[in-house]
Amino acid sequence: MDRRELNQELVDFIRKSASMFHTIATIKGLLNDAGFEEWREEEDWAPQPKGKYYTTRNGSSLIAFTVGSDLDALAFRMTAAHSDSPTFKVKSVPELKGPGEYLRLNVEAYGGMIDSTWLDRPLGLAGRVLVKTDGGVESRLFNSEKDILLIPNVPVHMNRGVNDGYAFNRQVDLLPLFSAGEMENGALDAMLAEALGVAASDILAKDLFLVNHEAPSIWGVKDEFVSTPKLDDLQCVFVSLKAFLASENDRGVNVFVCFDNEEVGSNTKQGAMSTFLKDALRRLTLGLGKSEQEFHQAVSRSFLVSCDNAHAVHPNHPELCDDENRTYLNKGIVIKEAANQKYTSDAFSQAVFLSVCEKAGVPVQHFANRSNMQGGSTLGNLSNTQISVHAVDIGLPQLAMHSSYETAGCQDTVDAVKALTTFFNAALEIHGAESFRLDA
Ligand code: CO
What we know:
By secondary structure, this protein is of the alpha/beta class. It has nine helices and 22 strands. Strands 1-2-3-13-4-14-18-16-17 form a nine-stranded mixed beta sheet, sandwiched between helices. Strands 11-12-20-19-15 form a five-stranded mixed beta sheet. It has a three-stranded antiparallel beta sheet with strand order 5-6-9, with no helix packed on it. α1 (3-16) crosses α9 (410-425), α4 (231-246) crosses α9 and α7 (347-360) packs across α9. The radius of gyration is 23 Å and the shape is globular. The protein starts with a helix and ends with a strand. Bound molecules: cobalt (II) ion.
């Protein structure tokens, strides 16, 4: 695997995935190219041994399956990552006229971003728009592609305190400029209408988000780094999808999951706390001619790798990390743990994933928060509230998480694809929490 080539593929993937809806469209394109069949939730599902399928919910979450032919002791080998990233969402009445002839957009925060990183950058707009058509109301994807917005900083001469720790007021400081005077109220809908080939009066509703258009970069004298918007969590989406598509396993079922709404708590109809995964696994199992009993047996033998990026030690702030359970770029995949179980890793699931990495020849690092610091949570423990399986939280170390432009290590992209491909190809036999066996 050529490191630079793989990371170029990663940034191309992220570039196409301008919103959570576009992330799912990008994944669908790759699955369609690989011969997967789409199942809609409102249709009958008729899985077959050796079949390849996927289903989506809300156009922003997706689950894909590859079914083996040896389905006696059915088990699911699963990865989960998330399609969304912190950004700003446009409100329904989107425009603010003035001061003067300025036209601004009225936006609110989606998730917990570093506010200052959104200023003085070319921005686009992407998401979905509900439009009236002759056949009824339809959801259409929109991506401005070109730079159409910018949130300017106040000059230092007018804000002398800006370098002393300035708190941005999101209703005041973070509204993007849309026009200097050549556009009026209604310009956003007019622009959308033109792009979508409908009349402005046919636009009913929209979920539109700001997109940082800063170009991605693979950089460093030795090409060690990759920087782009949305590495959290599209780097994990990309590596888990690459591994899923590269693997072939006759035993049981491989499952690739991409959930929406991790950045706003996951408790939506398509988030990790929804019934989406449970519903899909149950329908797949029953569709294979198995009983309800056999479904629960399969769940008990299954394993989830929850993939969400992790914090690397900040080069200027090493004191923010635990003295030993700390991670660095390009030094291995991160296993995250927390005694409060906000990270779902436990000794059993860590042992499984360590065995996978050992087999793959990939280095591993351990992350735990400083004991006086509250950490974040992620997909694993939330997904487990619906479908409870052995699960480990992993991630790739990165800098500046929730900046609008994040940085990770190029070698980690390679190592993650290797480790997760080994996971999907493995024969993993789980017996309760007493023992497991991992064979080639
Ligand atoms: Co994340």
